[in-house]
Design a protein that fits this description.
heterodimer, A: about 270 residues, mainly alpha, 12 helices, about 70% helix, B: about 325 residues, alpha/beta, Rossmann fold, Alpha-Beta Plaits, 2 domains, 6-stranded mixed beta sheet, 4-stranded antiparallel beta sheet, 11 helices, 14 strands, elongated
């Protein structure tokens, strides 16, 4: 035991280049390893969206939406909404995971390492983006079985999955900031799903905006969930994509930069 | 280099000057001065709430001081936290490991985040695990480890880059005597290899046996500093002790001594051990024994001895507490 000097490093520790990318990859790798050792953790986030999709379309699928023809009209409207609302409902997982880490000894270890500060958040987001991607593929595959058709072809399908991933990741950033602001894990577990549910209902996810209560409509029009759901609808059924695309782009950028910066700062000072 | 004019002397690994820190209304540190010479093992001793953890967190760049300057290996922790982080290893009060990962995955992850290449991190992890006695458990998730193994793996994690300074916050708290011994042997090995260490502890006998220097922290200030031997002398040269046959006699013995030979003795509850100020000479001790025997109190043992660091610690922090309550309006 007194021979510790024998393993003293002879090579100097070099400052790695591209630290942010490298460290983010290492953090994402950490979550992947944990997942590999506990594959059961995947069951809930992968099975729950499929079950919800099947239940929603089975219950509401035959409703008619005025202005649309045929009994499958609402189904066509609903499926893109379900894909997007699922991303919003999954996002709190990222915030809760970061909050759980923030108070642990491991967080103090990370904070005392010469690693990139934003890597803790970005690595987690990269991991969640993978989760969103798997979810989106499963959801779209199931949705095809339930009658979804994508008129823009395979490129459209890829685009829909990409929208779910990018939008989900940006909401995850907001969830990270919110969770670290709340600070207490038990409170966060209860509170975090409220804004997610509200965001989903006050949007065009389940019903066209003109069908919503009057007070909801102004909020629903600027809600990023509306932008994302409408963009997916326009890719699936055709129609104007420019307006929802621009709005979604602005939202994603704003969510990534503002809550992202605040969350990283919050992580560093949380103790 | 313009820095060299203000840099701390090269033999100081840590230089703390007038550091204060409040958390709202709670005053954690109220002006701490401390120097840790390079290559030494320095212990920070203090009761719960004395400010030990706050000071450690400031050194490790986890908390910013409200006032004062802290230099670690010549670098200012407030101005240059990133470079300080590259030079320190922190073993915090709570084990800094991912419970769900294996020991090896933890060490490799932490080593790589600290800047090591993958291959480098793996071989370093294997070497450290071997030396700290956790090699057999490296492939198991940390949640299956015992408390002692966790602590040793955590120490290995902070040694991954072989930092010149290790800061340890109560590394032996909650360990059984054998695990504590193993950890201390590892630390002694590190010191032999030239690593500077600052650690906090509540176990006074540990500081007594292993530390080069001891600083006693109480209510956010250092109230005494020195080698363990010197600290003991600070309180009193020696302690006179009388051990009674029957512990129940302690109360009676204290009053007899006060009345007959004007001695203020302290009785340790339950043990039948009486201690007196060290300036008591052998003659006084013998006459004390005589009056006790005359009073029908049987004596098992008596003598003069060095005070333990516990006694030094209690005397020092007790004096500080008394002074603080006198200061109060």
């Amino acid at each position: 035991m007194t021979a510790l000097s024998a393993v003293a490093l002879t090579e100097p520790v070099t400052e790695p280049r591209y630290r942010l990318l490298r460290d983010s990859g290492l953090v994402a790798g950490r979550y992947l390893r944990v997942l590999r050792m506990n594959p059961g953790r995947l069951i809930y986030p992968l099975v729950q969206p499929i079950v919800l999709l099947v239940l929603f379309t089975s219950v509401f699928g035959k409703l008619a939406v005025s202005g649309h023809q045929g009994s499958g009209a609402y189904r066509e409207f609903l499926i893109p909404g379900i894909i997007i609302q699922n991303a919003v409902l999954t996002a709190p997982i990222a915030g809760l995971a970061l909050l759980r880490d923030a108070g642990s000894g491991l967080a103090d270890r990370f904070r005392s390492l010469p690693m990139s500060r934003p890597a803790v958040l970005i690595g987690r987001l990269a991991y969640d983006a993978m989760l969103f991607a798997i979810q989106a593929m499963l959801l779209i595959a199931t949705a095809f079985g339930l009658g979804l058709s994508v008129r823009t072809g395979p490129a459209g399908v890829v685009a829909i999955a990409l929208i779910a991933v990018v939008f989900g990741a940006s909401v995850s950033v907001a969830s990270a900031w919110l969770a670290l602001m709340i600070g207490d894990i038990e409170t966060a577990e209860r509170v975090m799903y409220f804004p997610a549910i509200a965001l989903n209902f006050v949007s065009s996810a389940f019903a066209p905006v003109p069908y919503l209560a009057a007070w909801m409509q102004p909020i629903a029009r600027v809600n990023p969930v509306t932008a994302a759901a409408d963009l997916v609808r326009s890719l699936a059924a055709g129609g104007a994509a420019a307006r929802p695309a621009v709005m979604l782009g602005c939202w994603v950028l704003a969510l990534a930069v503002v809550p992202g910066t605040l969350a990283v700062r919050r992580w560093q000072s949380a103790a | 280099m313009t820095q060299s004019a203000t840099a701390a002397p090269t033999d100081a690994a840590v230089d703390v000057v007038d550091v204060a820190k409040n958390f709202g209304a709670v005053i954690a540190l109220r002006g701490v001065n401390l120097t840790v010479p390079a290559g030494t093992l320095t212990a920070l001793l203090g009761p719960n709430g004395a400010g030990k953890t706050t000071l450690v967190r400031i050194l490790a760049t986890l908390t910013r001081p409200d006032r004062g300057r802290v230099r670690v290996l010549g670098l200012d922790v407030t101005d240059d936290p990133a470079r300080v982080r590259a030079k320190i290893g922190l073993t915090g009060q709570y084990v800094g490991l991912d419970e769900a990962l294996t020991g090896r995955d933890n060490l490799v992850l932490i080593g790589r985040l600290a800047g090591l290449a993958h291959r480098q991190a793996r071989s370093r992890a294997a070497d450290l695990a071997e030396l700290l006695g956790v090699a057999d458990a490296l492939g198991r998730p940390v949640r299956t480890y015992s408390g002692g193994m966790r602590r040793r793996l955590d120490l290995a994690a902070s040694l991954m880059t072989n930092p010149p300074l290790i800061v340890l916050d109560e590394p032996t708290t909650g360990l059984d005597p054998a695990s504590r011994q193993q950890l201390w042997e590892a630390l002694a090995g590190l010191r032999a290899a030239g690593t500077t260490m600052l650690l906090t502890t509540q176990y006074l006998e540990e500081a007594d046996r292993f530390a080069d220097m001891v600083h006693v922290l109480s209510r956010g200030v250092i109230i005494a500093s020195g080698t363990p031997a010197r600290l003991k002398c600070l309180v009193a040269g020696r302690v006179a002790e009388i051990r009674l046959d029957r512990p129940d006699d302690a109360g009676a013995a204290v009053s007899v001594l006060a009345r007959k030979v004007a001695l203020t003795a302290r009785a340790e509850p339950g043990s039948g051990r009486l201690t007196m100020p060290a300036d008591v000479g052998v003659d006084t001790l013998l006459s004390a024994a005589a009056v006790l025997r005359a009073g029908g109190i049987a004596i098992a043992d008596l003598g003069l001895r060095q005070p333990s660091l516990d006694e030094a610690f209690l005397a020092l922090t007790g004096a500080a507490t008394a002074a603080a309550s006198r200061d109060r309006p």
